[in-house]
Amino acid sequence: MKYIFVTGGVISGLGKGITSSSIGRLLKSRGIKVTAIKIDPYLNIDAGTMNPIEHGEVFVLDDGGEADLDLGNYERFLDISLTSNHNITTGKVYRSVIEKERLGEYLGKTVQIIPHITNEIKTHIMNVAEATGAEVCIVELGGTVGDIESMPFLEAVRQMNSEMGKGQDCLFVHTTLVPIMGTVGEQKTKPTQHSVKELRSIGIQPDIIVARAKEPLEESIKKKISLFCDVPVEAVISCPDARSIYEVPMILNDQGITDYIIDRFKLNAKGPDLAEWRDFANRIINPSKTVKIALVGKYTHLGDSYISHMEAFHHAGAEAGTKVDVIFVDSEVVQQFGPTDDLKKADAILIPGGFGTRGIEGKIMTANYARLNNVPFLGVCLGFQIATIEFARNMLAMTDANSTEFDQKTKHPVVDLLPEQKNVTKMGATMRLGAQPVVLTEGSKAFKMYNSALIMERHRHRYEVNPKYIEDFEKAGWHFTGRSADGVKMEIAELDGHPFYVASQFHPEFKSRPNKPSPLHLNLVKAAVKRKYGLAD
Fold this sequence. Notes:
The protein is an alpha/beta fold and about 525 residues long.
């Protein structure tokens, strides 16, 4: 097993996840089997209880793991399905060590950060990597070098490198920042130098430096970084701002990073095969049409809160030859002032998942606006429940219809807590999570979109459509054309007499991939194109 450790310096948000994903994509294009692990240094066991505004989207895996959003990037770039074990947190590591200590597994020794915590980290990394059967495991270390939270993880991977024969089976990629200062636009290397100095003080010498900058690095700057950071000049990789994240693998590959890694590890690799990926990226960058889709939610202040929807629209847009301009609309603003100008200008509308009462009435008003004005609409998870509540209020004369999540005393609880959730007291990892089978009604829009009667989609919810109202909904034209395997839980609904008004209890965005877009997002985009241009797609 070969390991590539990706670290970051200077500031967060430099794109370690995209760098890791891109390297994985490049190695995969050369016929090398790759897997990926994300290390997050926070004390949470997983990302499930974290606010999206603080940490970005919670990405859900097939096995029900609630993980960091970077696992979504890995899955999309590598076209693989990962497990919750591929996301290591400080909370997971410490919990495991403390449980072993309580069982007496350390034979009375004083339990310490070194060696017990670091050994646990190394064991977890190697067990996960080896279980996949991959040739190369890419491990992204979250946070920034110098953060106190990251120290045990950096020490663990330093030990791995030493134990496996320095430089033989481990390679360190360090992402850093080269800012441009002053009116003359001079690229500054000092932040990179200090970041590498910090890393070397821990005992880690980077093998490759990926330098983020607005513009490509000047050759003289590459040579300066090489000299001061003791890295070969060919291993100083310039990563300027790209038109699309899907362009990054080509930017890195064109500078020789793939061959450098393959030569360093002495891997048996075939010739490069990036034609399909280049074609996909070009279709994103050079669309023939443009549509505006309003995303109405309450986490709109941070785009990463809805990153999987954004990427699903990129995938769908590439398939439809269309650029999707996503307009973020705060549901609280809609609740206060009614449909905004941005909402009225949209060619389609999406209401994504979410929790809590804030902005709910604004989302219900949005669903009503889309239904009455024939605007293509997709509701996902909470959006599915919102569309159901709106329909009950305005088409079934149940004026106080609601979810018991928002009003426990409503006379018409058309959305209610899942029966298995009634006695749940803990918040973390207790929802209906992960991939579940969904049976589609033959002849329905859903069946045609998926071209299948049985699909597997990922879930993350506690509430469901109340079965006792199903017959009323169906008679009035709100048809449930996707159901759980036992027929009890409603999974997809579609509206009679509307160009495209569809909602799903599951999250189709989590399984959307380049060249394999989410069928629901793709058909929303096609409906938006038809509304704007009068075309079929």
